[in-house]
């Protein structure tokens, strides 16, 4: 018996990086997966990989900072796969480079808050009524070590947005526990994605790969499965020991 047999999972921001890894692993464990992103070519590659291994996946595209787009994707997923039982609100990222606060533009600040905190809020807002009605659900948010401890090189808007995701997760967990819904957060150390590779030297990139071997996708699988049946409201640091709270 696979750990997610019969479950429908929506993983936002899953065309590459952490999201793609989570989507692939969930499918390997029996979930029907909706992969999401803007790059349709990359989404197709993830979907084809899942299907080549015998899994079931569909791809949806839309802007997760717009509730109308989210609702349209939600409706399509449930029409094609069934009720969403697992949401991984992974879409986001650092949308402004590190630098002194006074040099942060208003546009950069708003983009980071919208692309991370608001996107997480709106996606959860869409799926939550159905989960409450069914009295079951698993919600996993993705924060960052940048939101767990201060660092002079952290992009401040990104760190603030990710810290907001953590308290959103914990407040929500307290609110929806009586409905049988578990809500947890994963806070990885910096992960080598295409976006942050633009701002990290090759030497730092090699160090990141060597220093953080813990698999974020496997942490998400644990939190989505019945193995974590008594765990909610947790921020799980997947940092190779770089963060200890």
Describe this structure in words.
This protein is of the alpha/beta class and 245 residues long. The chain is built from 8 helices and 7 strands, in the order βαβαβαβαβαβαααβ. The chain has helices at 17-28, 40-52, 67-80, 106-134, 156-176, 194-197, 202-211, 216-224, and strands at 8-11, 32-36, 56-60, 86-89, 137-142, 181-188, 235-238. Strands 3-2-1-4-5-6-7 form a 7-stranded parallel beta sheet, with helices on both faces. Strand 5 (137-142), helix 5 (156-176) and strand 6 (181-188) form a beta-alpha-beta unit. Helix 1 (17-28) crosses helix 8 and helix 3 (67-80) runs parallel beside helix 4 (106-134). The longest helix is centred in the middle third of the chain and has 29 residues, at 106-134. The radius of gyration is 17 Å and the shape is globular. The N and C termini lie far apart (35 Å). Mean pLDDT is 90; it is low at 209-214.
Short description:
This protein is of the alpha/beta class.
Produce the secondary structure layout.
Layout: E1 8-11, H1 17-28, E2 32-36, H2 40-52, E3 56-60, H3 67-80, E4 86-89, H4 106-134, E5 137-142, H5 156-176, E6 181-188, H6 194-197, H7 202-211, H8 216-224, E7 235-238
Parallel strand pairs: 1-2, 1-4, 2-3, 4-5, 5-6, 6-7
Major β-sheet profile:
7 strands, parallel
Measured by DSSP, the beta-strand proportion falls in 5-15%
Give the spatial strand order of the biggest sheet. Answer: 3-2-1-4-5-6-7
Total beta-strand segments: 7
* Average pLDDT rating: 90
Helix/strand structural class: alpha/beta
How far apart the termini lie comes to 35 Å
What gyration radius follows from the Cα positions, in whole Å? 17 Å
Number of helices: 8
Share of residues in helices: 40-55%
Overall 3D shape: globular
SSE ordering: EHEHEHEHEHEHHHE
